[in-house]
């Protein structure tokens, strides 16, 4: 795929409107890639380093293409740890990720050093369970149980 085609990847299935990606700014791109790719299992779709603008963007997804939805990690090269970090503001909520076995996912993430900020729970008795974890920059990531096969210890 040549560069021009690469820039038009969004249109590979352009027959209907859809969410393409959400972007978050990250302070340490390698730590973020470790969290999202190694620990959560996402794939890097594309990385672009913009020398003139002094930033990198990396698109990640659970799928192999942009059609499944993506997260854009943006890293500004000159934002050092000595500078006051990014703030999440009062409008940011979370990114939701579906997992087939919520309890297994939380135990695996906890074992790899990820902070579980809200332990698995159900908001309604018959509803899927959910939990929250923190990424390296403190963003909230909601994990939602997607399979009824795995019900965890609290299933009644």
Describe the structure.
- With 156 residues, the protein is an alpha/beta fold.
- 17% of the residues lie in helices and 31% in strands.
- It contains 3 helices and 8 strands, in the order H-E-H-E-E-E-E-H-E-E-E.
- The strands form 2 sheets. Strands 1-4-3-2 form a 4-stranded mixed beta sheet, covered by helices on one side. Strands 5-8-7-6 form a 4-stranded mixed beta sheet, with helices on one face.
- A hairpin with a 4-residue loop joins strand 2 (43-50) and strand 3 (55-61).
- The radius of gyration is 17 Å and the shape is globular.
- It starts with a helix and ends in an 11-residue tail after the last strand.
- The model has no long low-confidence stretch (mean pLDDT 85).
Labels describing this entry:
4-stranded mixed β-sheet, 31% strand, alpha/beta, 156 residues
Ordered list of secondary-structure elements with their pairings:
Layout: H1 3-7, E1 21-25, H2 29-39, E2 43-50, E3 55-61, E4 70-76, E5 95-99, H3 102-111, E6 116-121, E7 130-134, E8 140-145
Parallel strand pairs: 1-4, 5-8
Antiparallel strand pairs: 2-3, 3-4, 6-7, 7-8
How would you sum up this structure in a few lines?
This protein has 156 residues and is of the alpha/beta class.
Count all strands and give the number: 8
Sheet of most strands: 4 strands, mixed
Q: How would you state the average pLDDT, rounded?
A: 85
Overall geometry: globular
Strand content bin: 25-35%
The assigned structural class equals alpha/beta
Task: Please give the radius of gyration in angstroms.
Answer: 17 Å
Helix count, per DSSP?
3
| Low-pLDDT runs | none
Task: Compute the separation of the termini in Å.
Answer: 51 Å
Percent of residues in helices comes to 10-25%
Following the backbone from N to C, one meets helices and strands in this order, namely: HEHEEEEHEEE
Physical arrangement of strands within the biggest beta sheet: 1-4-3-2
């Amino acid at each position: 795929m040549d560069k021009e085609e690469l820039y038009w990847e969004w249109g590979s299935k352009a027959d209907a409107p859809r969410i393409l990606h959400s972007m978050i700014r990250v302070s340490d791109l390698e730590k973020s890639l470790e969290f999202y790719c190694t620990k959560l299992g996402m794939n890097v779709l594309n990385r672009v380093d913009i020398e003139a603008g002094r930033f990198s963007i990396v698109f990640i997804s659970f799928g192999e293409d942009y059609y499944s939805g993506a997260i854009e990690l943006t890293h500004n090269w000159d934002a050092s740890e000595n500078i006051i970090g990014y703030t999440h503001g009062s409008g940011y909520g979370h990114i939701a990720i579906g997992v087939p076995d919520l309890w297994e996912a939380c135990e695996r993430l906890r074992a790899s050093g990820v902070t579980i900020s809200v332990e698995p729970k159900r908001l309604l008795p018959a509803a899927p369970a959910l939990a929250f974890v923190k990424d390296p920059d403190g963003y909230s990531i909601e994990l939602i149980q997607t399979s009824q096969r795995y019900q965890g210890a609290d299933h009644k």
